[in-house]
Specification:
Helix content is about 50%, strand content about 15%. It is an alpha+beta fold and about 350 residues long. The strands form two sheets. Strands 3, 4, 5, 6, 7, 8 and 9 form a seven-stranded mixed β-sheet that branches. Strands 1-2 form a two-stranded antiparallel sheet. Helix 9 (about 225-240) runs antiparallel to helix 10. It is globular and about 70 Å long.
Length: about 350
């Protein structure tokens, strides 16, 4: 069984939730919080949401980038913009979370029913490379910090809002299902994008809008329980003393998303029960290869756990989770005051 330094881990959370402008942390300073043992407080604080006002600042930073680009682009095609990232699903664990602004060529699309783009007026590869080229020029004239080394994106840092935004360049991908349902109010659930790997490709298909919809839907019908579970795993990964780099946020989200809703439904004080449900599910994923490889991503199109190398990381993550559960249960079981404090945290 692992040993966890809860003092250090609580400090890590405080650092991730620190607002340098107000010089305060978003960690709870209530009387009930201060009366809790460190292990129980770490469990609860790991699962708490980032205040919406901070997430709005992140979205605002992306909106400013969009405005700068649209004001200065000189392109023969229109652009569409969308956003993605943990801020949109409210599963971020940092005030200053990175955020994706999707810049999409809006003059044509790649249809599922055709092997290639049927548009012929210009070369789509030239179009997307020119959009990236102009974006770099525009943003370097406005922002001091612009990173143009990414294969799929460029990044800016907004110093006034203290937010990083990744600008990702894409084409529309229209699935047959999207074409069949786009007039019935389903919006873009079945609509995808092609991410372009610079400088010469290839394109990578993704369905971010289905992902966002499904993660948010599960979060809502579990009374934020699934979101709490995702935040917990992200926190444990961030604070893990061992390297578990094979596990990405995408994997952690997929783990929680594959758990039955009734095991994640949140009622006040249910943090420990959600943690136990996640531990049991990770154990199943580790020990049942057939089940592990059958798990689908939230958008229903990918299998995140096909690579067996990820099992080692899952074992380390589960050990930390199980230690947290065991330590917390002891304090919760042995103290009525702790049980009461949890309910008013």
């Amino acid at each position: 069984m692992a040993t966890l330094n809860y003092s250090n881990r609580l400090q890590n959370i405080q650092n991730r939730k620190y607002d340098p402008e107000l010089r305060v942390s978003l960690m709870s300073e209530s009387a009930s919080a201060k009366s809790l043992p460190e292990d129980v407080r770490y469990l609860i604080e790991s699962m708490r949401t980032i205040d919406d006002s901070y997430n709005k600042k992140t979205i605002n930073a992306a909106e400013r980038v969009q405005t700068h680009l649209e004001t200065n682009f000189n392109l023969h095609f229109n652009r569409a913009y969308r956003t993605q990232g943990s801020v949109i699903t409210n599963t971020n664990i940092k005030i200053h979370s990175d955020f994706d602004l999707l810049a999409i060529i809006d003059k044509y699309f790649y249809p599922e029913k055709s092997p290639s783009n049927v548009y012929t007026e210009s070369d789509p590869n030239d179009d997307i490379r020119e959009m990236r080229k102009q974006s770099i020029r525009i943003l370097k004239e406005i922002y001091d910090e612009v990173d143009d080394t990414g294969e799929k994106n460029i990044s800016i840092y907004n110093k006034s809002l203290k937010r990083k935004v990744d600008i990702v360049f894409c084409y529309w991908y229209h699935s047959t299902k999207y074409e069949e349902t786009k007039g019935d109010g389903s919006y873009e659930y079945y609509r995808g994008i092609y991410l372009y790997k610079f400088p010469t490709g290839p394109k990578e298909k993704d369905f971010p809008f289905a992902h966002i919809h499904n993660v948010n839907y599960k979060g809502d019908i579990t009374n934020d329980g699934s979101r709490k579970g995702i935040r917990l795993l992200k926190t444990l990964k961030a604070d893990c003393e061992s390297s578990i780099d094979n596990l990405k946020g995408f994997h952690l989200t997929s783990i929680v998303h594959s758990i039955e809703n009734d095991q994640l439904f949140y009622r006040s004080g249910d943090e420990i029960n959600i943690a136990k449900a996640i531990s049991g599910h990770i154990n199943l994923i580790i020990n049942n290869p057939e089940y592990r490889k059958s798990i689908l991503s939230p958008n229903g199109t990918e299998y995140p756990f096909l690579n067996d190398k990820i099992v080692t990381d899952l074992i380390i993550l589960r050990q930390d989770l199980d230690t947290l559960i065991e330590d917390s249960i002891k304090d919760i079981t042995n103290s009525q005051s702790v049980r009461s404090a949890i309910l008013t945290y």
